[in-house]
Amino acid sequence: MPLRQDLRAQAELLAYLVISQLVTRHATGNWMSVEHTVESVQMWAKSTKQDGDLRRRVMVATRAYDFAVRIESDIHLTLNGSAVASMFDVC
Predict the structure, then answer these.
(1) pTM for this one?
(2) What are the CA-CA distances from residue 56 to residues 51, 59, 61, 89 (Å)?
């Protein structure tokens, strides 16, 4: 996979996982478990037909958790149904 496409795929996975972490935190009060994170990564990879480097996906998942924690603590982001829906709006 060309570098540009690989970086785009990683960015898309990162965004998907950050949002997933924040939604899970809002819905349950907890962050996603390791098992749930792995399942989410696998679902993303299957739906986007990405079979990239497992090591990179693990790194992206770890960064996503770190970003989600910072977003919650630094920005004090609160989610509601319309906020979550707007994250998935397509222009």
Answers:
(1) 0.80
(2) 11, 5, 9, 27
The DSSP-derived string for 34-89 is HHHHHHHHHHHHHHHT----HHHHHHHHHHHHHHHHHIIIII-----HHHHHHHT-
Residue 26 to residue 80: CA distance in whole angstroms = 8
Question: In the prediction, which pLDDT does 45 show?
Answer: 87
Length of the chain: 91
Amino acid at 74: D
Q: Provide the 10 A C-beta neighbour count for residue 68.
A: 22
Residue with tokens 């958790």: 65
Condensed to tens digits (0 to 9), the pLDDT of residues 29-70 reads 999 999 999 999 999 888 888 777 788 888 999 999 999 999
